[in-house]
Amino acid sequence: MLKRELLSLPHHRSWALTHLKDAGVPFQWHYHPEYEITLTLGAEGMRYIGEDVAPFGHCDLALVGPDVPHTWDAKASDGAPEVYVVFLPRHWLQAQVEAGLVELSPLLDWLAGLGNGAVFGTATARRARRLFERMAQPGPLPALAALLELLQLLQADEHGRPLGGRLQQPPDRRLDRLLGHLQRHYQEPLRLEQVARHCSLSPATLKRLLQQHCDTSFSQYLNRLRLGHACHLLTTSLLPVALVREQAGFNNASHFNRSFLAHTGLSPLAFRRRFGWRRLG
């Protein structure tokens, strides 16, 4: 189920940091209007950011763009997992530049060009760890200095991989209504005209909203939700692939197999063998 996450900023900061120790990494498709920078330690599995699906190791650093659906499907690899997450409001850097801090302009341009986000090299992730630790210490000014140093470190990473796509536009209430309906019913047979009627939209408006805000079509977005659920079932259950397909909302085996291979680079069985066997064994 894809959920919109609501974030409250602390009163003494214009951005937020979350630090989770000895905690699991739940599989939960979600999105929010802030940039997210996540450092995952002591876990491994699959990372989903927009339409990018890739494995990650025990020291992983990723940046997620505003309103981009994402989740991690992880299991412990080296002790208890530890996760640091920075939430940066969409227009935070823009506001600083407009206030006169023109030195931040190169960072603003870099961030704006990332599209859906980026993933970074292991060496950068290891260097970033000390910056996250500094951000977690008391004192807003040292934490802010560490945040700016982190952004500079990410910008300089030659091994960083942009994830493409384009940044989403400010949220639209009609989009929230549409996405909420798809999130609740993606396992059911859905037709574009039926969904548009339920959401009080014309089919053309529905298509435009998804293209403008999510850079995708109706069928592609629906496929993404269903494939994410299928990946979750394959790595967390022993259900036969045929039942996984049905529970994820696919009524055609050939279409499911083609879509799954295109999305992950693996067949459903190969995906389960690679990413689910330790958890299920």
From TrEMBL:
Designated name of the protein: AraC family transcriptional regulator
Species of provenance: Zobellella endophytica
Pfam families: HTH_18
Domain of life assignment: Bacteria
InterPro entries membership: Homeodomain-like_sf, HTH-like, HTH_AraC, RmlC-like_jellyroll
GO MF, any single term: sequence-specific DNA binding
Chain ranges of the HTH araC/xylS-type domain: 176-274
Keyword line: DNA-binding, Transcription, Transcription regulation
PANTHER family (alphabetical): ARAC-FAMILY TRANSCRIPTIONAL REGULATOR, TRANSCRIPTIONAL REGULATOR MTLR
PROSITE patterns xref list: HTH_ARAC_FAMILY_2
